[in-house]
Design goal:
- The chain is mostly helical.
- It has 2 domains: 41 residues; 58 residues, 434 Repressor (Amino-terminal Domain), CATH 1.10.260.
- It is 61% helix and 0% strand.
- α1 packs antiparallel against α2.
- It is elongated and about 60 Å long.
- The relative contact order is 0.11.
Amino acid sequence: MNLKPIRNEIDYEKSLSRVEILLEKDRTENENDELEIVSILLERYEEVHYKIDEPDPIEAIKFRMEQMQLKQKDLIPVFGNKARVSEVLNRKRELSVKTIRKLHKFLELPFEALFKEYNLIR
């Protein structure tokens, strides 16, 4: 087991290859330890170099709608009318606190995802 920090893409690719090899075989205890350590190193490298930003509230709503196979019309009970659903999803109108509470319950989205700032299109 020759472990070292992952400092660049070459190290990253080598570490990924090593993980693939380890996953495809019956491992010894030392290899299990190596797999765990290399996985931690890969995770740390990815957190810095492949960071994925959390979606803004509108993206989160649309993603959840897709997961639940919902259409805009399905959100009318939350927003009150078809026009308001369209305005919010098209970034013409901000979410109100009341609507955020309803979306949290209806779509089971965390409050943190719905209270983030986002840009409107004016």
